[in-house]
Amino acid sequence: MKTLNQNNKQIEKQPLEYYLNLQYPVTLYPDPEGGYVAQIKDLPGCLTQGETLDETIANINEARELWIETAYESGDDIPLPSSEESYNGKLLLRMPKSLHRRLAEEAERENVSLNQYIVFLLSKVS
After folding, report:
1. What are the HicB-like antitoxin of toxin-antitoxin system domain coordinates in residue numbering (predicted)?
2. How far apart are CA 74 and CA 56, in angstroms?
3. Check: CATH 3.40.630.30 for 1-83?
């Protein structure tokens, strides 16, 4: 199926499954009233909240799917995920064993991976 983009250029519309499989950056931050908020800035209005990090991540994944399905069925443009080619999202970090242990214990209490917990903490300071 061919559609017109914003510049009136004809483009090939991908199947719904293509858009559902795209990896969008998610911003997580604590809600002042408790729990967490998650947002996908590339998909305007796509945000949610949850009591725990796991619940919030599950909710944002569901919100992303619903946002994409609704836009697709309405014939609206679905933005591609933003990317910074000079950044790959990986970082090798050395830290004291005591800090590593504390972070791992906190992640376990939150029932999330250490990686998710560190990303959450870093997102709070930016």
Report:
1. 24-119
2. 27
3. no
